[in-house]
Amino acid sequence: MVIQLYTHSSLRNFTYLVEGSDGFYCIDPFDAAQVLENLPGKLLAVINTHEHWDHTQGNSELVSETGCEVWAHENAKGKIKAVDRFLSKGEVISLGGSKQFIVMDTPGHTHAHLCLLLVEDKKKLAVFTGDTLFNAGVGNCHNGGDPEVLYKTISEQFQEMDDEILVYPGHEYLGNNLKFTLNLEPTNQKAIDLTQKYEEDNLLVTNMKTEREINTFLRLENSEIINNLKGNTDNNKQVFLRLRELRNKW
């Protein structure tokens, strides 16, 4: 079970509750009260994808109310308070039975960013992406990040990810990101169709197949996108960097 909590804040955060055999794991608690209100059982741990306050501000209250632990990226030492367990690339977190999280080291938005791949019966089901990959977009690099590092993360870890893997990001940015896609690739029928669905339900969940169809940052060889960019577009990396620069001001 994955419970997606939309915070209804100006930052449009998502928080997640993921069920294990002995209880639940909370990813990126924005509002502790909202988490507690929707928590169906025991809270075992909070997992922060990265150190930014809107992904960690519920930590202390959840620890106080439930006695849960706090886990975060090993590079978050000194950046997130009272972390009980620091996680590293490739680490496996057993959720009980055949279900597990695999820790991904995903720098770019910050250098202490992790994502979590949810696997059950050896099948990759979903990825919790924090502020690395959004529905139809990627994270910014304004506060402790690096766009060249983000390009490496996206191209090496997400570009070829299995089609059916669901994408659970840290923010609800799909509507605005689809407008960005259509500004650069106005003939993208999949983005047009998804925009219509979004107008009916703005809490849509995509998978990696859909992301490769609508996310400009995964469509770096698309001629229409390239023709609508200014500056160096000689290779995929440069296209990504031009897109990130444009999105910063868009």
Topology record:
Layout: E1 2-6, E2 14-19, E3 24-27, H1 32-38, E4 43-47, H2 59-66, E5 69-73, E6 85-87, E7 92-96, E8 99-105, E9 114-120, E10 123-130, E11 133-134, E12 137-138, H3 147-158, E13 166-169, H4 174-184, H5 189-200, E14 206-207, H6 208-214, H7 223-227, H8 236-249
Parallel strand pairs: 3-4, 4-5, 5-6, 10-13
Antiparallel strand pairs: 1-2, 2-3, 7-8, 8-9, 9-10, 11-12, 13-14
Helical percentage: 25-40%
How much of the polypeptide forms β-strand, as a percent range?
Answer: 25-35%
- Give the tally of β-strands: 14
- Oligomeric description of these chains: single chain
Please tally the helical runs, counting DSSP H or I stretches of 4 or more residues.
Answer: 8
Q: What spatial order of strands do you see in the largest sheet?
A: 1-2-3-4-5-6
Output the structural class: alpha/beta
**Rg calculated over all Cα atoms:** 18 Å
**How many distinct folded domains?**
1
| CATH superfamily heading | Ribonuclease Z/Hydroxyacylglutathione hydrolase-like
- For the termini, the CA-CA separation is 36 Å
Large-scale geometry:
globular
